[in-house]
Design goal:
Blueprint (H helix, E strand, L loop, with lengths): L61 H10 L5 H11 L3 H12 L4 H5 L1 E4 L2 E4 L11 H12 L7 E5 L5 H9 L4 E6 L2 H11 L5 E4 L14 E6 L14 H6 L2 H4 L7 H13 E11 L4 H10 L3 E7 L4 E7 L6 H8 L7
Parallel strand pairs: 3-4, 3-6, 4-5, 6-7
Antiparallel strand pairs: 1-2, 7-9, 8-9
Helix pairs in contact: 1-2, 5-6, 10-11
Bound molecules: S-adenosylmethionine (SAM).
Length: 336
């Protein structure tokens, strides 16, 4: 995985969709009751042991970095300071990184990487930061094909940095991976992350840029598409609202505009017995279950309380030809 950043330092929090853990005091919703997953924190993943800084200079002592980060509202100031000090190659670079972080840039954008599924994924400015909860979708996907002897074809739709595709390649060596996103910055970033795995990354709207040869042959169709309701975006902390593209967050009135389209067209692309896996909010899952069933798929819901994650898994019946599945959906023409 040559494009990945070296795994030599501690992990960092990439958990919640909106960085609420890093700035809980900015969280605009109550954390005492249930809240949609995109507005609620997930488990922090900082290592408990702290490696001594490898920084060759001390012009900006770590304690000063901690103080500045804490004053800016960074809850995990100690961990963040360690990561920044370790990442900076010069005093000037460290000062600039601290300034960017204090100004509100997501830590992962300052560092240039995020930890996801035990891997370091390059994340460019303007690209969605992969969240810890999405590791649950990856685990669910791996479970469904682990041990399979024939080659596995995977599509990471709405791929962002390509984190899910990279994690799936790492967990399932030898798979063929394709990814697509509508945002040019995400496509560039995913191409870098997936290059050494031979992953193909396409630029365009959902399935539109995928090669037709994949139709009916996809074993795993993984989609972490935007699912935040439009009205809820203003409730998100500035880290997400201001530094992640709107197209990565906004799922329309009920948050499900993109996911409904993903479900409706999935049967055309899935192999018999293939699985669509999409992340949703807990309260949105029933709507996607319904949309998947209408498309002729067999849906189930899996959730992780630990990661505050909900995934709808919709399987194309093994026996049904794609034309029959499309007919059951009442919206897909037979595919020739
Ligand atoms: C929530 S982010 C998830 C990114 C990545 N899957 C991850 O988990 O880190 C959603 C991504 O969907 C992309 N996207 C939104 N609408 C899209 C569309 N119509 N077609 C393709 N990609 C889209 C955004 O650009 C963004 O990168």
């Amino acid at each position: 995985m040559g494009a990945l950043l070296p795994r030599s330092r501690g992990s960092l929090e990439v958990g919640d969709r909106e960085g609420a853990l890093r700035h809980p005091e900015r969280l605009p919703v109550s954390t005492s009751g249930p809240s949609p997953s995109f507005l609620s924190p997930s488990r922090p993943s900082f290592p408990s042991s702290s490696r001594p800084s490898s920084s060759p200079f001390s012009s900006l002592p770590r304690s000063v970095v901690v103080t500045r980060l804490r004053a800016a509202g960074c809850v995990f100031a100690e961990d963040e300071a360690r990561l920044l000090v370790n990442a900076a190659r010069t005093p000037g670079e460290l000062a600039a990184m601290v300034r960017r972080r204090v100004a509100g840039l997501p830590l992962e954008h300052v560092l240039g990487w995020a930890e996801f599924h035990g891997l370091r994924i390059a994340v460019d400015p303007g690209v969605f930061v992969p969240r810890r909860r999405t590791e649950f979708l990856v685990d669910q996907a791996v479970e469904r094909v682990a041990g399979r002897s024939r080659p596995v074809t995977v599509v990471d739709l709405c791929c962002g940095s390509g984190a899910m595709g990279v994690a799936l390649v790492a967990a399932l060596p030898g798979i063929e991976v394709h990814a697509a996103d509508i945002e040019p910055a995400a496509v560039r970033c995913a191409r870098r992350n997936l290059a050494s795995a031979g992953g193909q990354v396409y630029d365009g709207d959902l399935y539109e840029p995928l090669p037709a040869v994949l139709r009916g042959h996809v074993d795993l169709l993984a989609a972490n598409a935007p699912y935040v309701p439009t009205d809820a975006i203003e409730l998100m902390p500035p880290e997400a609202r201001e530094h992640e593209p709107r197209v990565a967050l906004d799922g329309g009135a009920d948050g499900l505009d993109v996911l409904r389209r993903v479900a409706a067209e999935a049967p055309r692309w899935l192999a018999p017995g293939g699985h669509l896996l999409v992340e949703t909010g807990e309260r949105q899952a029933a709507s996607i279950v319904e949309a998947s069933a209408q498309a002729g798929l067999i849906p189930t819901v899996a959730s992780s309380a630990d990661l505050n994650a909900t995934v709808v898994i919709a399987t194309r019946p093994a026996a049904a030809p794609v034309s029959a599945v499309g007919a059951a959906a009442g919206q897909l023409p037979p595919v020739g």
